[in-house]
Predict the structure.
Amino acid sequence: MNLKRKYSILSIPERIHPHPDYTGKGVTIAFIDSGFYPHPELAKRVIKFVDVTKENFEEEDFLRITSTSWHGTMVACAACGSGSWSRGHYRGIAYESELVLIKAFDGKKIRSRGIQKALEWLIANHLKYKIKIVNISLGGDRNETATSSLICKSIQKLLRMGITVVAAAGNAPTKPIVPPASCPSTITVGGVDDHNSLTETDFTDYGSTYGYTLDGHLKPEIIAPARRLPAPMLPDNPIYDESLLLHTLEQTPLPKIKSVLSKTFKKAGLDKSLTKSTPVEILTAVRKRLESEKFFCPQYQHVDGTSFAAPIISSVVAQMIEANPRLTPVLIKMILETTAKRIVSLAPEKQGRGYINARECVERALVETELLEFEKTPKVLDDRIVFYYRHPDAKKVSLVGDFTAWKHDLILMHDIQPGIWRADIPRLSDGYYHYKFLVDDSHWLEDPLNPMKANDHHNGLNSVIWVRGIRKRARVE
């Protein structure tokens, strides 16, 4: 085997440098997707198959490979595959996690109703299977506000049950982000094209969906690699057989390649007329076919899309929960956002807080002992506005924004408990206000608990607060 070709695509661990000591062991991830197959790289770790599109289904239904099987299987393997077909090289980050696989596609159209039924099943069954993370690499067929979307309401319920929900942003930059990716409680994942390189200066825009939701929230929150990602193919089907034959042809000595081709051209997806070509022409055609079909080594294809960026984030979350089972979904989201690294070449709106910093996420998870009991800030009350900020290492935090004319030190936040900072200001007049936190007089940071963001025109984002008509709210102490 030509090892240069076999390992020509970077593995996911090589791309994002996760913490080496955690594998997602003891953490169950549920995947909502178009369909699944009990892939050998997931062997013995799938604890439940569900098809919410059928009232009566048998788990044996998943043993049949269909046109809907590949997407969900490859998504799950991107997060949790063992890499057994590559001697562990192409394994997912959470390769010891257990899985619940939920089919939400009826074979005709991805519908919001199917996703909602999957979420309802999770609400009813999450305790039985000890589910802590939900990965959704599907988009619904309805764009709705969070208050009118049943999907968003269900995701909010899951968050309150201690379950973190991760969703793919989508792959259409000109289209709106829709539920589940648009839901405020979702960790929405966009993509970056790393060009199969470890050098961040090579990174470019992938072209994922981004922008403001109907509720005015900017999505995505974070980005991960979304192009040329390795994924094991479904076994024992024509595509798998084609890849094996093409790689056999590529490794065949030139004097024998025409003889081998004459017996295998049809299953290898090649035209019969190629049998009359020279050995060099045959080899060139074989390599072109391998490239066009993304068969970079015999049992793996490379895949593209935020569908495969999202499970990378889910696998890192599994590491975080393994490292610290007391983490809440709110704190997980905060850690992801505050450790992310912004890519200079990408517009801020397209990347949210930036590129996943996988190892730092786990290291931060390990030291977190104080749990957040609030879901988002700021809290606009009748007489004041309350801001909270989580930063365990800060010595000083200032609240700076339109309401301070962006002057420093006019509003100093107070550490109400280790690592948690608070500031109360008088209620502002109705309108939109931009703000940031200035940490230790040197770091300008957005509010990770506030999903409303806007471009700051300095290659970053401001947090945005919308103050409108007085309503009675619960008192905050």
User: Anything to note?
Assistant: Confidence is low (pLDDT under 50) at residues 1-5, 472-477. The chain has twelve helices and 21 strands. The CA atoms of residues 160 and 173 lie 31 Å apart.
